[in-house]
Design goal:
The structure holds two protein chains of two kinds. By secondary structure, chain A is an alpha+beta fold. Chain A has nine helices and eight strands. The longest helix of chain A has 32 residues. Classes of the chains: A alpha+beta, B alpha+beta.
């Protein structure tokens, strides 16, 4: 009889709470009832139970839902196409542009043909992964999905968990407006990238913000400044060395200076806690210095 | 988000943290311990108990352990809870806050008798 009445009382709670704690509450209720032998004591206990249930059931109904309790997020076909257009295709196009610009400068500067072919042939080989990875890039994001649980976020590829970061393991949340959100953990390999094009991005963001404060970064390329700029720099450097003219030297100095400024700007709030941005900065500084020196020498000679 | 509901720490939540300070306990164990440590003045009902447990779990002040046999309840399987390191820190801060209030109450002769 007591059991049945208690079961009815349990129905006053929200289903989620009942599913989670109903069985435990019933056990505690039985234990407490067993500890009271006298009828009067049991009556007092029953009154206390009913009051407790009424009060706590109202509280549970008013408790904000821990959204999303568990939810699954994917990228639509349009979102993948958009990512390809914005990042991968853009990356590839910029590589082509740098190659054409460098080779064009060497060609019109009447650089020796043999060395020009060798230099730009090597640069083309360096650029090949940007062309080859096109299909893989698409495939990767098509298979990508996120699973947000009460206290962890998982990145899945074709339904298999590839990375997982617990709420207590988050070391940093970095949002690049228009691009997405990086969930960084103490282990760099376990960090998760959430593109802003994923379905329900705002909902994920709200849930993660409740776990950890989000830092906002200024917009920057998904592929980072490093690869593309280094490639561009090599391409212009190649032309400058092959032609050895003041005009190409000036372009080289301009590119080097731009690269150096961007790296120094990014160093204000580096994306990762590694020495890589500083190494890039040192290389940029060295290359700018060399370009300046070479340009002055060409002018003098 | 849940931490917001624990600032200030409710008396029930503080009592549960204190109950778990010495040992891992199941729900009924927490209920009895709270009753004992408050000298019978706080008797938690099942709804208040598990509502507070849920809040403390969400705030990561306590951790849920695997189900295991409860020797004090004839070996029945129960869900056990443990105080987390952040839970211990929060309980310590609350105890310190109360100690300061107690000292003020004593100095102003608000609190007298056996407590002094």
């Amino acid at each position: 009889m007591s059991e049945r009445v208690f079961s009815y009382l349990l129905r006053l709670y929200p289903r989620r709470f009942r599913d989670e704690y109903g069985a435990s509450m019933r056990l505690v209720f039985q234990d407490r009832l067993r500890s009271e032998a006298r009828i009067s004591g049991r009556t007092v206990l029953w009154i206390a139970f009913v009051v407790d249930v009424l009060k706590s059931a109202v509280k549970e109904h008013l408790r904000p839902a821990p959204f999303p309790h568990t939810a699954h997020f994917t990228l639509s076909e349009d979102a993948v196409a958009d990512m390809v257009r914005r990042s991968h295709a853009g990356h590839r196009d910029r590589m082509i542009m740098w190659l054409v610009a460098g080779f064009g400068a060497a060609w019109f500067g009447q650089a020796p043909a043999g060395p020009s072919y060798v230099v730009y042939g090597l640069l083309l080989l360096l650029a090949l992964p940007a062309f080859r990875g096109f299909g893989r890039f698409k495939q990767h994001w098509r298979a990508y999905s996120l699973h947000l649980d009460f206290d962890r976020i998982d990145e899945l590829s074709a339904g298999r968990v590839v990375r997982s970061v617990g709420r207590s393991e988050i070391s940093r949340l970095l949002e690049t407006p228009g691009f997405g959100l990086a969930v960084q953990s103490l282990e760099a390999a376990r960090s998760i990238w959430i593109p802003s094009t994923v379905n329900g991005y705002e909902e994920i963001r709200t849930a993660l913000e409740a776990w950890f404060p989000i830092e906002r970064m200024e917009s920057r390329s998904l592929h980072g400044l490093g690869h593309q700029s280094l490639f561009g720099l090599l391409s212009v450097y190649g032309a400058a060395i092959l032609v050895r003219s003041q005009n190409v030297g000036a372009v080289l100095i301009a590119v080097c200076t731009y690269w150096l400024i961007r790296i120094l700007w990014d160093l204000r709030s580096p994306l990762e806690n590694t020495p890589i941005p500083y190494i890039r900065g040192a290389i940029a500084l060295l290359l700018t210095g060399l370009a300046l020196k070479a340009s002055v020498l060409w002018h003098v000679l | 988000m849940p931490r917001r509901t624990l600032n200030p720490l409710p008396a029930t939540a503080f009592q549960i943290l204190l109950a778990l300070a010495d040992e891992d306990l199941h729900g009924y164990g927490i209920m009895r311990q709270v009753e004992a440590q408050t000298e019978g003045s706080t008797r938690l009902g099942p709804g208040t108990l598990y509502g507070s447990i849920k809040t403390l779990l969400e705030a990561q002040l306590i951790e849920e352990l695997d189900e295991r046999d409860a020797p004090d309840l004839g070996g029945e399987r129960r869900r056990y809870y443990r105080l987390s390191s952040s839970g211990r820190r929060v309980a310590s801060e609350e105890a310190h806050r109360l100690a300061v209030a107690l000292r003020v109450a004593r100095s102003k002769r608000i609190l007298r008798g056996a407590h002094v």
